[in-house]
Write a structure and sequence with these properties.
This protein is an alpha/beta fold. The chain contains 5 helices and 13 strands.
Length: 197
């Protein structure tokens, strides 16, 4: 199985996952994320403003602003930069909402909350194929604690990603929270692939 095959498989699963259970799945993801952020006590967080098919973590992001500085990605060429979360948000390329540009440069965060399409056996990210996070992470001063968020659990025990793909510390899905050891060790099919609605 190649990375592009697995990405297509995961995108199909996301597309056809039940709309009726989405609110329940989103609430489970938010609950896990809130508990982890509270435990970590991060002061600088890079988050994302979800698109319709991604896990809706907006409540958690907004409540985090009481105790931490929260940043969102701002498209900048083939990558992005961080800008503080502030209103109004404007709809930009790919239907992504962004705050207005900030001319100050930010490159230090404690935690990165990153959306994923799929995850491989070494907890490396499979995104939409644009490579924006892969280009962005090397610009940071230090590697942040990286939390992947999935609205529909889709992971493989195979290592299909490249060395430059972003590696996570945790994966939060509606079913549970995974660490790298959980994904690599546990196999549930002969193909080493799992995906739940």
């Amino acid at each position: 199985m190649t990375k592009s095959d697995f990405r297509a498989y995961c995108l199909d699963r996301m597309k056809y996952s039940s709309k009726y259970s989405k609110n329940y799945r989103d609430a489970r993801v938010r609950s896990s994320l809130s508990a982890i952020l509270k435990k970590i006590k991060a002061k600088r967080i890079l988050a994302f403003w979800p698109m319709g098919f991604e896990a809706d973590i907006r409540q958690t992001i907004l409540s985090s602003r009481h105790t931490a500085k929260v940043y969102l990605p701002f498209m900048d060429g083939v990558s992005f930069k961080m800008v503080p979360l502030r209103y109004p948000l404007e709809r930009k390329a790919f239907g992504i909402y962004e705050p207005r540009d900030s001319y100050r440069k930010y490159n230090l965060i404690d935690v990165a909350i990153v959306p994923v399409v799929g995850v491989d056996g070494s907890l490396r990210r499979i995104g939409f194929g644009k490579g924006m996070y892969d280009r962005f992470f090397p610009t940071l001063k230090t590697k942040p604690f990286t939390i992947f968020i999935q609205s529909c659990e889709c992971l493989t025990t195979q290592n299909v990603c490249d060395d430059y793909d972003v590696q996570g510390d945790l994966l939060i899905t509606p079913r549970r929270v995974y660490s790298p050891e959980d994904i690599y060790v546990k196999r549930t099919t002969r193909r080493g692939r799992r995906c739940y609605p």
